Amino acid sequence: MLVVGFHFRGNLNDIYPIKNFGDLMFISGSFGVDLFFMISGFIIALSTAKIEDNMLTKYVVKRFFRIYPLFIITLAIFYLFISHEDNFSFWRSALLIQADYSQQAPFFGGNMIGQAWTLTYEIYFYLIFLVAMSISHKYRSWIASAILAASVFSLQLYYNGNISMEGDNAIPLQAGLPDALAAYLRFASSPMLIEFIFGMMVYELRNVISSIPKINVLAVISCSLAFCFYFAQYKAAHGPFNYGMWAILLIATLVAYEMKNEIKEIKVLSFFGDISYSLYLTHIAITMYLDKFGANIPIYNQWVGMSRLILLFIITITTAYIFYNVVERPFIRLSRYIISRHFSGSGRVLSQQS
Asked: What Å distances lie between residue 40 and 8, 36, 79, 262, CA to CA?
């Protein structure tokens, strides 16, 4: 929802006495990307806690069906009905290759679906984690962290002569190398990859973190600080030591809080958690569609400010709910069927000593 608000914020600007009201409310909403990367690192480590038969294959099947079907269907709809880009751009985006690796990090020209640039990082992390699990399940998080950190730090030191944790930092595109290799090295030097490490380390050190005295008080303080950082726009930029600092503060203390306290399910939050991926992928397409055809929609055309923003949220949430039930859930069920039908094995849990 933070990222959605960030992209919708223009509807509140230049409408009210506070001219930049939308920016004041949502300019820090891009923080959701860094938070998402850290949560992803934590969840992947958590969800692979037990070793099972055919674990690597199951991991690939689950990740593929969780991410790709919804993305490719959304991309196809965007390409056919909204975008004016060519076939090459479609296939490049479908393969989650950024548009132009000579452009500003961490976006590198982005994806045809603007915000889908983050999925390139996500898929890359999944691949690194797969390699780590194939080496050792027990030390999977540590191996994945070592691979990611080594690539970021060594590439920056070699080509830049220093290490920067700013999200917009990466090594220059190397003209003397093949284009594909130069693009990969520039991407692999992005400090955004460090945020997945933070998430994995919260998982690995969760028992240590939860043993910190007064963790309940610290959780409240952390949430309060994050709230202040958000509206003060303190270090409001991508990167491990910018938005990443907010994210690690929240995730570490809230995970520890949950380990020490029974938290009842909040159905509204569960609902938004369920549709979050659909919401994330579809909201830009909706905005661009309305920008293109909104003049022919009386309500959208006539409403401004908060009324239009609320309308956009209603349309976006409704669309995300439909996509979640029509696309996302069926493919998740399909992945479970494929696993149970072909890769279930004996269902035994193996030793974690490897």
From this structure: 24, 6, 28, 23
**Helix, strand, coil percent content, the chain, rounded in steps of 5:** 70, 0, 30
C-alpha closest to that of 34 among 65, 67, 3: 3
The alpha carbon dihedral of 139, 142, 148, 152 has a sign of negative
The total domain count for the chain is 1
Within-domain flag for 47: yes
Q: 349 forms bridges with which residues in the sheet? A: 52
Q: Taking a C-beta distance cutoff of 8 angstroms, is the pair 133, 120 a contact?
A: no
User: Do the domain assignments include residue 350?
Assistant: no
> Domain limits at 178?
2-342
Contact, 125 vs 39, CB < 8 A? Answer: no
CA distance 158 to 240: 21
Per-residue pLDDT tens over the stretch 268-302: 999 999 999 999 999 988 988 888 888 788 888 88
Q: Residue 52 phi/psi, 5° resolution?
A: -130, 170
Q: Which residues contact 45 (CB under 8 A, 6 or more apart)?
A: 140, 141, 199, 200, 203, 204
What's the CA gap between 33 and 315, in Å, rounded? 22
For the stretch 89-99, pLDDT in tens is 999 999 999 99
**Are residues 35 and 247 in contact, defined by beta-carbon separation less than 8 angstroms?**
yes
Q: Is residue 302 part of a domain?
A: yes
Asked whether residue 353 is domain-assigned, the answer is no
Q: Answer yes or no: are the C-beta atoms of 192 and 167 closer than 8 Å.
A: yes
Q: What global pTM score does this model have? A: 0.92
The residue whose two tokens read 């830049």 is 160
Report the Cα–Cα distance between both ends of the chain, in Å, rounded.
Answer: 40
205 DSSP 8-state letter: T
